[in-house]
Amino acid sequence: MSAGASPPSRGPPPAAFSAAGLQQLRCEHAILTNEKRFLAQAVAAGPTTSARVNSIRYNADAVELKMLKAYLVACEAQDEGSCRMVEAQMRRRVDDTQAKVDKLRQLLESVQRDVEEVLVASGGWGEHSTVKEE
């Protein structure tokens, strides 16, 4: 290949695209660029996020372990008042966790509705997406 020769092109020449086709390519390019940036940030944040999640899990396990030990001590001492108090704390913890799960489910449903609205509004742009509903 000579120094003045252009590299082989991929795809049809630019004149072959309609204005709508060019606009769609620009949109796809913008989306892919944003996805690339997002994924790069997610990968960079991965170790920090994993460490934070592991720390939270460890702390939650430690709290639950303390509750179970307190319950065991109360049972061994046959202290019904302490047993009831620890049971109430455990129930409250379960209720709090269930409330968080319910809130996350609501958020997920809201995001799914928003995605469906965007896909409908975009004229089926996402018909070939790899997003799967559960």
Brief summary of the model shown:
With 134 residues, the protein is an all-alpha fold.
Architecture overview:
Keywords: Coiled coil. Residues 87-121 form a coiled coil. The protein has one domain. Helix content is 75%, strand content 0%. It is built from two helices and no strands. α1 (19-76) runs antiparallel to α2.
| pLDDT < 50 runs, ≥5 residues | none
Give the overall silhouette: elongated
Helix content: over 70%
The topology string of helices and strands comes to HH
Estimated radius of gyration: 28 Å
What's the domain count? 1
Q: What's the helix count?
A: 2
Mean pLDDT: 80
Separation of the first and last Cα atoms: 52 Å
Q: Structural class of the helices, strands and pairings? A: mainly alpha
Specify the biggest β-sheet.
none
> Count of DSSP E strands?
0
| Percentage of β-strand residues | under 5%
Detail the topology: elements first, then pairings:
Layout: H1 19-76, H2 80-121
Helix pairs in contact: 1-2
Which labels suit this protein?
mainly alpha, 134 residues, 2 helices, coiled coil, single chain
